Amino acid sequence: MGPRSVPPARRVALVGAAARRPCTLVVCRGCCCGDARKNPGYDHAWQLERLRAAAAASAGAFEVRTTDCLGPCDRANVIVVQPSGAGRRAGGRATWVGFATDDDCTEEILAWAAAGGPGVAGPPAALELQFISPPRPAPTRTRTRARG
Fold it and tell me: What is the pTM of this model?
């Protein structure tokens, strides 16, 4: 499927802010992620400070944002590595990393994001062992009309 086969409305979505969007690390800080009771012995505040400091030093190569609960609480801490605009155009998709509760994992995520993230650079091999599937959306019920 070539670029000419993309509907005009879709082509517009590929330009502008989305085209310039950097790789983004979405850090879960909901009910379990970042909670010392769930993962004692790890400095969760340090992790978030380290991620933010690296993003600030990256000259816009990647950014960090936090969010409320992402869902897979049994795999806390969860960080989603979202592709940049260029990464998405190259086929990159959001990658979920679970059990991100050690300094090595944090540094591997940062190295991957600095290198361009999904679609631009391959992830560190050890980090791939921590990839998890995103939670499935809840099933949606549809109402059916009685036929008479």
Answer: 0.80
Instruction: Please state the φ and ψ torsions of residue 109, each to the nearest 5 degrees.
Output: -60, -45
Q: Cα–Cα distance between 95 and 127 in angstroms, integer?
A: 11
CA separation for the pair 10, 15 (Å, rounded): 9
Instruction: Report how far residue 76's alpha carbon sits from residue 130's, in angstroms, rounded to the nearest whole number.
Output: 11
At 3, the pLDDT band (50, 70, 90 cuts) reads: very low
Percentage helix, strand, coil for the chain under 3-state DSSP, each rounded to 5: 35, 15, 50
Question: Model confidence at 2, in pLDDT bands (50, 70, 90)?
Answer: very low
**Angle, helices 103-115/44-57, rounded to nearest 10 degrees:** 20
For residues 84 and 119, the answer to whether their CB atoms sit within 8 Å is yes
Given a contact cutoff of 8 angstroms between Cβ atoms, the answer to whether 72 and 81 are in contact is no
Range 123-130, long-range pairs (CB < 8 A, 24+ positions)? 123/81, 123/95, 127/97, 130/97, 130/98, 130/99, 130/100, 130/105
d(CA 74, CA 71): 9
pLDDT at 10 over 60: no
